[in-house]
Write a structure and sequence with these properties.
Number of strands: 0
Helix content: over 70%
Order of helices and strands: HHHHHHHHH
InterPro entries: Bax_inhibitor_1-related
Strand content: under 5%
Pfam families: Bax1-I
Membrane topology: Multi-pass membrane protein
Structural class: mainly alpha
Distance between the termini: 61 Å
Largest sheet: none
Family: Belongs to the BI1 family.
Protein name: Modulator of FtsH protease
Length: about 240
């Protein structure tokens, strides 16, 4: 008989084991997407023809950014009606597009500082993800606060595009690190709770794992970029 959390035979230990398997899939998909993004970013940075194609025109670059936003919107809004395979393909399409645009960091920062900041980000991310997973504290109250802070970050970033203030940029980056540190813990707890509907091993379970991986992927990438602006050595 299969475990079912609504059955009297579905113990607390079984539920925890199923949650652990579900989260393992989420982190596996997220990690694979990060590998794809990193490989594409490095490949584009080392290929002059691709670099020129993407960055020689602002229109091309902004079209790619728009495509990324479109893919995220399509995946999150349509995931209920698409297959798990299709959702996976959209997820990795986003990781490829993001890798292409993120290749710019190799021209702005030294390779050594990119590597160092990546490992710092990875360590910070793992600590906060572990906190979100294991804490018994309900982090729901963090949601609205973090969302408002995120909106403030976006607005501040747009304003600083015109001000071009290094000091203001450092303040924004510092707040950005705090916001995405918090979002990592918050999102991890919320993704863990996705399993509450008994979806592990089903088609929906696969799609929710992809959706959870996307959320944590975005948290990691944004945390990395804000840390890089604070700690990276510019060329």
């Amino acid at each position: 008989m299969e475990n079912n959390q609504f059955s009297p035979y579905y113990s607390h230990e079984s539920r925890q084991a199923d949650q652990a398997r579900f989260m393992a899939k989420v982190f596996a998909w997220m990690s694979l997407a990060l590998v794809v993004t990193g490989a594409i970013a490095f490949w584009v940075a080392m290929t002059p023809s691709l670099t020129e194609l993407i960055f020689s025109s602002r229109i091309t670059f902004y079209l790619m950014i728009g495509a990324e936003l479109g893919v995220v919107w399509w995946l999150t809004s349509r995931i209920q009606t698409m297959s798990a395979t299709t959702a996976t393909l959209w997820f990795f399409l986003y990781s490829v597009l993001n890798g292409a645009t993120l290749s710019v960091i190799f021209f702005a920062f030294t390779a050594a500082s990119i590597s160092a900041v990546f490992f710092i980000t990875a360590g910070t991310f793992m600590v906060m993800a572990a906190y979100g997973y294991y804490t018994e504290k309900d982090l729901t109250s963090w949601g609205n606060l973090l969302f408002m802070a995120l909106i403030g970050l976006i607005i501040s970033g747009i304003v600083n595009m015109f001000l071009k203030s290094d000091m203001f940029g450092m303040i924004i980056s510092s707040i950005g690190v705090l916001v995405f540190v918090g979002l990592t813990a918050y999102d991890t707890q919320k993704i863990k709770e996705m399993h509450a509907e008994g979806i592990n091993g089903t088609e929906d379970g696969k799609k929710y794992a992809i959706l959870g991986a996307l959320r944590l992927y975005l948290d990691f990438i944004n945390l990395f970029l804000y840390m890089l602006r604070l700690l990276g050595n510019r060329r």
